[in-house]
Amino acid sequence: MEWIKLIGILIILVGFIFKFDTIAVVLIAAFVTAMVSGISIVEFLEMLGEAFVSNRLVTLFLLTLPMIGISERFGLRQQAVVLIEKIKSLTPGRFITLYLVIRELAGAFSIRIQGHTQFIRPIVNPMAQAAAENKYGKLDEEDEEMIKARAAANENFGNFFAQNTFVAASGVLLITGTMKSLGYDIAESAVAQMSIPIALIVLVLAGGYNLLMDRKLAKKYSKREDKGGQQ
């Protein structure tokens, strides 16, 4: 009968396969597991409440979603696009590289502006798309997806390779704590200092990567314009 306690996993699998509401599926799975395990409803609610309180910082992420939706609804994306359209010389690759510079500088000062949901989707990607359309005209769907992916990738580059440039970053503290527990005398500032060259190397490589994207788009859409003029 101990196997019956794994029924929650089955419920989650079935719910995900049939694409039911995620939160409802998880709550139902937890409730059923508690019932078959001999946990009373009151105890289950207490456990649920304690888990919510102990992980309340995680739930703050859920509060950002409606805020982002409201911002988009009242013109945040449109205003960002209008701003980019006024800069004629800006290409999507240059803009994304500029964001990467800002992202790494923000990481060095522990300023949290990142996030695919909070920042890339509502602001960075629309601005990069606007820069591309302003430069090359109407884009193909595959190129729109490429720019979208490139914007998300540069967020990952900046987050992963520049996060330890701040002396009190969690990664820096983890590294120094682990090394000190092994008997190595290492300072947090030394770890942050050694992370700076890595961030700069990534910035150069990603900038070149984005430049190649610009050249690819320019070549593709210049040929299209030539064909249109000949016709």
TrEMBL record:
Entry keyword Transmembrane helix: yes
Alphabetized Pfam families for the sequence: DUF969
Keywords: Membrane, Transmembrane, Transmembrane helix
Database matches in InterPro entries: DUF969 (IPR010374)
Transmembrane segments: 7-32, 52-70, 160-179, 191-212
Domain of life: Bacteria
Keyword Protein transport applies: no
Protein name listed in UniProt: DUF969 domain-containing protein
